[in-house]
Every structure is written in C-alpha cells, then in structure tokens.
Amino acid sequence: MYIYVDVLIITSIYTNFFLLKTTARLVHSPLRNGKCIAAAMVGSLFSLIILLPPLGNTLLLLIRILSAALMIIVAFSGKSPRELYKTGLIFFFVCFIFAGIEYGISVLSGNQNMIWHNSTLYVNISLLTLIISTVISYAAISFFRYYLDGKNGLDKSYTIIITRNGKTISLKAVGDTCNNLTDTFTGKPVIVCDKKNITELLDSNETEIILSEESMCCSYGWRLIPFSTIHSDGMLPIFKPEQVIIKDMESGCLKSADVYIGVVDRNMEYAVFNPKIL
After folding, report:
1. CA 219, CA 226: separation in Å to the nearest integer?
2. pTM
3. Among 118, 145, 213, 225, which has the minimal tally of Cβ within 10 Å of its Cβ?
C-alpha cells in the first residue's frame, strides 16, 4: 500500500482542526480560525514520522507529547500554564475518542487500506467516511459536554471581569441554567447585565441608543438577538467584549469565557450567566 504525502497532510490538517475546535468547545474557550488552522498545520507535520524507520516507544511518546504541546500553545496562546495543561489533557481525551470512532468505522465498512506505523495511523478512507466519523465524534463529545454542564453547581457566588476598549469593570454574578441565550450567528453564550452596571464601558452615543431597537446598528459593534421570558419577550442588544473572566469567589479560580454581553434596563443587582460556561 502506498502512502500519499499530500493526502496524509491534508487529512491531518482537517482532523487536527476538528480536534482543536472540539477541545475549545469542551473547555468553553475562544479559538479563532486563524490560530486553529496554524496549530493544525503544525500538528500535521508530525504525521510525517510515519515515513521514518521504526522508532522506539519512548521516543514516539516524547514526539507525541511535543506535537500536542505545540498545537495547544499555538491554538490557545495567552492562557496561563495551568490552563494550557488542563486544555492539553482534554485534547488528548478528544483525540482518543475520535481515533477510536474513525478506526471502528473503517473496519466496519470493510476498509482494510490502513497502515499503523510509528504510532501514526494512515487510513486511505473516502471523504464521506471521514465526514461521517467527524459528525459522530462531534455528537458523542457534545453529549458528554452537555452531561458535564448539568453537573455544575448553582449555589456559588462569582465575579465577572469585563474588558472593552481598554476599560475593565467587575460585576457580581450568579449562575442560572435558565439563561440559555446565545448569539444567533456564532452560537456563543450571552451573559445578561444591567445597563447601569456597565456604563463605564459605554461611550455617550452607545448610552443613548442602547435600548432603542429602532436605532441600534452594527456601526458600534452591537446587534440584537431575540429573547423570551415568562413575563415578556423582545430583542436584546448584545456586544462582544475584548475579554471576559469569571472568578469563583469560593475557590478563587479564574476562567476566561468566550461570550457576548447582553444589556437590559431592569435594575438587576447581579449579572446572570449559564454555569455551562464554566
């Protein structure tokens, strides 16, 4: 059986991109496509070890750890060493799940066109098989993420640190699983805050139009999403801050969150977010 380097590299980039995006979903961490592609390309270069003579297990393990570490550092640069370590562990878990499902589908489909060498699997599979294995893997991991989200406690106190246009504020916050608001276009969660608590982040023009649906426009980086509660429904103005950090006041743990901020005028003492963000 022949190994086609172009197929090996392209398939590796595609797979690594998916694995990194899935990891980001599991840890609820922001991951830009540019960084993800760059990290996937770095990881794809290590797949070329399949072309080398047999290597020892210890060396192969070191190469795999180096490959994963470089991919995580490139993709999630800016995180603390502790966060990178945790993200790396989740990345290994995702790789394990995907590799198992992909291998299983290949065997069940009768595809014997595969080579396992130097801890690297080369499978000459069709594009359809690759897509199917990707969808099944993503569904399985998403279900696991959903299960974990339901395990988060709601009886804790939090502080949310929001940075926008060079300004930073801190707000008291509570977790509420009923807050299922997400941005329509990106699917990212929305943290709901009272207008008076984020005034420092707004300029004079934004303060005037923020609650006027008719005059809200994208020129200020805002948009509207539909919302519905027991008492009312309508459109909620949201914006994307430069950074959001959620602090658990009991443990002191800090968690960066890739979210939008929704603004209401209802005299809310606390910001409200879904604990799944954690």
Report:
1. 19
2. 0.55
3. 213
